[in-house]
Design brief:
Distance between the termini: 44 Å
Strand content: 15-25%
Structural class: alpha+beta
Radius of gyration: 26 Å
Number of helices: 11
Largest sheet: 7 strands, mixed
Length: about 375
C-alpha cells in the first residue's frame, strides 16, 4: 500500500509541460465533481472492501499495478492501490483523466505507441507503465473515476477479459452506491449521523484554519410522539419529510444539514455569528407557519432548539460539539416541559427561548 501524503509530480525535468497530452474535462464536469464530493471518500483511509477488489483484479489479470482512483478537480486520488507507492497523481498526467472522457473502457496496449502517453512521466520514469486498461466508475450517470490495471510490458486484452474488467468495475460501483446510502437518511434524504460527522468535521477544519465562526443548531420537534400516536406513523413521516425540506430551503448550500434520528435535526452553520444563527431560527419558524404542507393541519408543529458556538479549544472533534448541543437541547426540553406542566407557557414559546437557547461554550 502507500503512505497517504506521497504523490507523483505533474511532470519531470526531462519533459516539457506542453509536450504532455493532458486530458480534457468532461462536459458535465461541475455535476461530476459535485457527485464525487457527495460520496465523502476523498482523502479517507483504507477500506477493506475496496482493497479486496483491487487485489482480486490484480490477481485475475496478473498485473503488478491495480488502482481504484477518483478524478478530482486537479488530481487523481487513489482510494485503493496495488503496485504504486503513491496516493495521488496530478490530473494533468493521469491516465484515468482520459478514461472518464471515453464512452467505454480505455485500453492502451503500448504507451510508447500512443501520442497521449509517450511523453508521460509515468511512462518515461517510474513506474514505467507500458500497458494500461481502465474502466470508468459511474454513479448516477456521472463518471467519477476508474478501476484500472497497468503493466511494465505491452499487452492486450481479449473480449472475455474486457467483460471481466467491466464486471469487476460494476462491483466497485455497487460499493460506491452502498457508501453513498450509508451517509444518507433514507426518509428525508438529508445526511444521517455518519454523513454529518464526516462532512461537518471537514468543514470545522476549514473554518478553524480560516478563523470563521461556526454554530451548531440542534432542533427537536415538539410533541412528535403525539402526532404518531394520534395519526399514525405515515403522518409522522410526512411531517419529518416536510420539516427536513423546510430546513434545507432556509439554509445555505455551505451549511451541513442532517437528521440524526427520530425527530432530531442538526445544522452546522458555516461562518455564522450568534445573531446570524438566531436569524436562521426565525426564518425556519416563519417558514413553518407558512408551509402549506404543515400549516392548517390538526397537528401543532413546533420545535425546540439550541445554538452552540464552536470553540476550537473545547471541541476538538464534531462529536464533542454534538455532545454539547445534545446536552443543551435536553436541558431546554426539560425546562419547557416544566413550564408546560405548570401552565406557564408563553404564547410565543419558541421565540421566548431565544436568549437561553444559545450557549457560548467558552463559559462552560
Amino acid at each position: 500500500m502507500f503512505p497517504p501524503s506521497r504523490s507523483l509530480p505533474s511532470s519531470s525535468h526531462e519533459f516539457k509541460r506542453d509536450a504532455l497530452k493532458s486530458p480534457k474535462a468532461p462536459e458535465d464536469e461541475k455535476l461530476r465533481l459535485a457527485k464525487l464530493r457527495s460520496l465523502r471518500l476523498l482523502d479517507t483511509g483504507y477500506d477493506v472492501c475496496f482493497d479486496r477488489l483491487t487485489r482480486l483484479t490484480a490477481r485475475i489479470f496478473e498485473v503488478p499495478i491495480c488502482v481504484i482512483g477518483f478524478v478530482d478537480e486537479d488530481r487523481q486520488w487513489f482510494k485503493s492501490c496495488m503496485g504504486l507507492e503513491i496516493s495521488e497523481v496530478a490530473r494533468s498526467v493521469s491516465f484515468c483523466g482520459h478514461t472518464i472522457t471515453c464512452p467505454d473502457i480505455l485500453i492502451v496496449e503500448d504507451t510508447l505507441e500512443d501520442e497521449r502517453f509517450i511523453d508521460n512521466p509515468m511512462v518515461a520514469n517510474e513506474p514505467h507503465i507500458r500497458f494500461y486498461a481502465g474502466c470508468p466508475l459511474t454513479l448516477d450517470q456521472r463518471k467519477l473515476g476508474t478501476l484500472c490495471i497497468a503493466d511494465h510490458s505491452p499487452r492486450s486484452l481479449d473480449q472475455r477479459q474486457i467483460e471481466i474488467l467491466k464486471d469487476l468495475a460494476s462491483l466497485v460501483e455497487q460499493q460506491l452506491a452502498a457508501t453513498l446510502l450509508a451517509t444518507k437518511d433514507g426518509l428525508t434524504g438529508l445526511e444521517n449521523r455518519r454523513g454529518f460527522v464526516a462532512l461537518a468535521q471537514q468543514s470545522l477544519q476549514l473554518c478553524t484554519r480560516q478563523g470563521f465562526p461556526v454554530s451548531l443548531l440542534y432542533l427537536d420537534l415538539d410533541h412528535f410522539k403525539t402526532i404518531n400516536d394520534l395519526h399514525g406513523p405515515e403522518e409522522g413521516n410526512r411531517v419529518l419529510i416536510a420539516f427536513a425540506d423546510l430546513i434545507k430551503d432556509v439554509c445555505r448550500d455551505s451549511d451541513v444539514v442532517a437528521r440524526l434520528g427520530g425527530d432530531e435535526f442538526v445544522v452546522l452553520l458555516i461562518n455564522s455569528t450568534r445573531e446570524q444563527s438566531e436569524t436562521v431560527i426565525h426564518r425556519i419558524k416563519d417558514a413553518l407557519v407558512h408551509d402549506n404542507r404543515l400549516s392548517g393541519k390538526n397537528n401543532d408543529i413546533d420545535f425546540s432548539y439550541g445554538i452552540t458556538s464552536y470553540q476550537p479549544e473545547r471541541h476538538e472533534t464534531i462529536a464533542e460539539l454534538l455532545a454539547d448541543g445534545d446536552a443543551l437541547m435536553r436541558e431546554i426540553k426539560r425546562l419547557r416541559c416544566e413550564e408546560s406542566d405548570s401552565g406557564d407557557v408563553p404564547a410565543a414559546a419558541g421565540s421566548s427561548w431565544s436568549g437561553f437557547a444559545h450557549r457560548d461554550t467558552t463559559t462552560g
